[in-house]
Amino acid sequence: MSEYSNNQERRSITTQVVDGLQSVIGTERSETADARLGLALCFIAGAVNAGGFLAVGQYTSHMSGVISALADNLALGAVHLMLNGLGAAIAFILGAACSAFLIHWGRRHRAYGQYAFPLVVEAILLLAFGLVGSLYSHRAFFVPVAIPLLCFIMGLQNAIITKISQARIRTTHLTGMITDLGIELGKLFYWNRTMTVPTGRVVADRAKLSLLCSLLGAFFTGGLAGAYGFHFIGFAAVLPLAVLLLILAGVPLALGRGEIIDHEQRT
């Protein structure tokens, strides 16, 4: 009886984990599912951004600095550096465009894993980055290729959660999130001296405040993991990130494929 109960408990836990993964990247969305996916992707973005800096000497997730550097280098006549910045910006845009294309293709074909396709592509590209980086020791040739690749990956990822959450959540740059956090803190500490103000009381969105703090914490934690990982094991640090992406995408895709096969067999 005890062994039967243990088996039932294991099955229950497994079912809960699978259902959780299915909801995170499934077609039916909720604020909870968006938040969970946002936390996972923020962690990955922080790890790639921090680890990538140690690999190529440049942060690749925020385009504000890239565009500013592009303008500076153009004004200074540093054409080579300007072209590098332009390539990074174009790669980020192409990554976002690729993500949107894959998601819309999945919707048009009613694919169950429409949001999972970009995650699979991101995982493959991260593995390619790690493999090439570990095998190719000529930094002068590796860096000009690695920077656009990482920018493409970041654009791809940021567009995924932006599309899914209808632009409520972004993962690869924190300026907007920190601004929103400051706004909500200002509302939180605002003193409503009277209850009869025509425009109503100023009330902070505590759920949004909690989400923003969680996303920032996930990005920071990912940054620590990426920096320590690259420092100690080098390019192999991308392997657990790729595995996490494949778990997020693979379980829903496999379940969706299984449901399609079952439906075809019944019909």
Q: What's the total count of β strands?
A: 0
- What is the overall silhouette? globular
Spans where pLDDT lies below 50 across 5 or more residues: 258-265
Structural class: mainly alpha
Please give the count of helices.
9
User: Which percent band covers the strand fraction?
Assistant: under 5%
Radius of gyration: 22 Å
SSE ordering: HHHHHHHHH
Secondary structure: helix percent: over 70%
Termini separation: 40 Å
Largest sheet: none
- Please tell me the overall pLDDT: 82
Overall number of structural domains: 1
Polypeptide structure, described:
The chain is mainly alpha-helical. It has one domain. It is built from 9 helices and no strands. It has helices at residues 2-25, 31-56, 63-76, 79-108, 116-135, 139-164, 175-188, 206-233, 238-266. The radius of gyration is 22 Å and the shape is globular. The protein starts with a helix and ends with a helix. Residues 258-265 have low confidence and may be disordered.
List the topology elements.
Blueprint: H1 2-25, H2 31-56, H3 63-76, H4 79-108, H5 116-135, H6 139-164, H7 175-188, H8 206-233, H9 238-266
Structure summary:
The protein has helices at 2-25, 31-56, 63-76, 79-108, 116-135, 139-164, 175-188, 206-233, 238-266. It has 267 residues and is mostly helical.
